Amino acid sequence: MIEVPPKIDLLPEHLIDQIKAGEVIERPGNLIKEILENALDAGATKLQLTIKNNGLDLIRLQDDGHGMRFSDLPIAFSRHATSKIKKFEDLYSLSSFGFRGEALASIAAISRLQCITKTVNESTSSELRIEGGITTFHDQRKTSSLNRGTELIIQDLFFNTPARLKFVQSQQSEKNFIRKMIFAFILSHPAVEFQIKFDEDDKDIFPRRNNLRERLGDLFPKAKEFILVEHRAYENIVLDLILIPGQFKGPIKLQNVYINNRFLLDKQLQRIFSNSLLSTFGNDDFHYLAIFKLPADNIDVNVHPNKTIIKVLENSKMISLLSSTIRESGQNRSEMAHLSSGKTGKEFGFINNLNTEDSQSSNLPQQRHHYNMEGHFSPHTLPASRASDILWINEFILWAKPPRTWAVSARKLLEEYTFQRLRIMTVTIPLLVSEPFPSKGIRKATIEKLIYAGMELEALGSDTIVIRGIPDWMNGYPVRDVVTCLLYEKSFNDIQLNPADWSQTSWEEMLNYFSTDELITKKIILDLPYLLFEKLK
Questions:
Q1: Does residue 383 carry a pLDDT above 80?
Q2: 141 confidence band (pLDDT: 50, 70, 90)
Q3: Best CA proximity match to 280, nearest among 240, 325, 216
Q4: What is the pLDDT of residues 188-210, one digit of tens each?
Q5: Could you report the per-residue pLDDT of 453-466, keeping only the tens digit for each?
Q6: What secondary structure letter does DSSP report for 462?
Q7: Helix H segments across 194-352?
Q8: d(Cα 82, Cα 101) in Å, to the nearest integer?
Q9: Cα-flanking dihedrals φ and ψ of residue 364, to 5°?
């Protein structure tokens, strides 16, 4: 039996709008991003945003921008209506957020929408109401709270496309995404006042600021003195990099990348950030902002309907500039010193109050803590494992790294690795049992160096230092011997290397930290056949 082919029809306009809405408005956070961009494009300096039930019940945004004319209002909610471009070439010289003319039409197609707007030259406000893409009201209003600007009220999101509600995530996940979008604009527009209200919560007000540093000071008040800013340029690419140690808690975890003030959701750049921070600082627990400025004709923003992905003409140069700037920031991080354990510079006063090698004063208030007098460290040790490519022979390691087997001086490896890692700030892990050390013979410079590297120290009286936390890379060490050598600047030859005290994982991490060439140059490893030949000849 021959089947009759189905008739091909053009889709009705309202269904086209609902389908397009699924591309632009995937979730409430995307909608909020779109209307914030519209308000900022309109020159707003004050935004009041109210959200109920994560935007599904209500999103209300009032701005003080230039508003819209009565005649333009219905056109603004039509597909492909925009004031931003007149010809195709304009796509490559954009200075505005919006340009596609799809967002408002998409929003109107899947919600009950009311828009009230007024320009500075009009004596009355204009009002438009749309339900599911159908205009139900368009007229002028004599009474309005607006002096100038636009008020957009969006209710019952997805009311006529209930299938899309299945793709809305958990309440907390949606709220986190909404907050991520909102704070992306709060940071990129410090000269704009934002008032944000969720459900019945108190309103959060972020007043206008002169610059981004002031805005960051509002969000991270305890980190004001520890915000690292790096400015770099390469050819026609300019980068401002901002790093804040992660232990300074703010209203949200910042992992923001901007190109020409556009907020991006770029997983590749996030991976580069994480890897570069790990290699430079020993951990990636940072708030960060990367703000790129490129010539407008070097980027293509017309890649994705919600404009969170941008194609860059010379992407490799931008990535190289980002990676190198993060690496260089590790050499200029004096503002961030001593932050790995959440300490601030003010807490360093105890150094001057200890009876150390170069200080005799003692006026620090004493604090009592319980610690283990037997002197055994109790860090969160890693489980010991017998690695097949590592074998101990007395105080040496046989390390199988194809195509060779190497003889490793464990003591040299430990010393070189330790002093390399001391140069890098890292995360502190607390000791389950604190450990005391006599302060006599310990220099202030040594204490500062160890705290910088992530060790948590505290004065106990005038003659004792207590270790309360260690850098995370010491996890699995027999720490007392190593810390003793570091505090009193003793030779690592004094450390008794008992394989049973060590996690095999620790040695693997130490060996893999260096390249084979570095290990050979530093005489940490020797080719085993060569070593045997020298011993037997």
A1: no
A2: confident
A3: 325
A4: 999 999 999 999 999 999 999 99
A5: 888 887 776 788 88
A6: S
A7: 212-219, 267-281, 315-329
A8: 5
A9: -80, 135
DSSP labels, 391-442: EEETTEEEEEETTEEEEEEHHHHHHHHHHHHTTS---EEEEEEEEEEE-TT-
Give me the amino acid identity at 140. Answer: Q
Q: Which helix (H) or strand (E) element contains residue 135?
A: strand 134-141
User: What pLDDT band is residue 335 in, cutting at 50, 70 and 90?
Assistant: very low
Predicted TM-score of the model (pTM): 0.58
Q: 370 phi and psi, to 5 degrees?
A: -85, 135
The two three-digit tokens of residue 138, written as one number: 């368009």
Residue 235 is classified by DSSP as T
- Pull the structure tokens for residue 532: 């045997």
Those residues with Cβ within 8 angstroms of residue 469's Cβ, 6 or more apart along the chain or in another chain:
341, 428, 429, 430, 431, 454, 455, 456
For 143-208, give the DSSP string. --S-SSEEEEEEESTTTT-GGGGGG---HHHHHHHHHHHHHHHHHH-TTSEEEEEETTSPPEEE--
**3-state SS string for 111-131:** CEEEEEEECCCCCCEEEEEEE
Non-local CB neighbours of 244 within 8 Å, separated by 6+ positions: 216, 220, 223, 226, 227, 228, 250, 254, 286, 287, 288
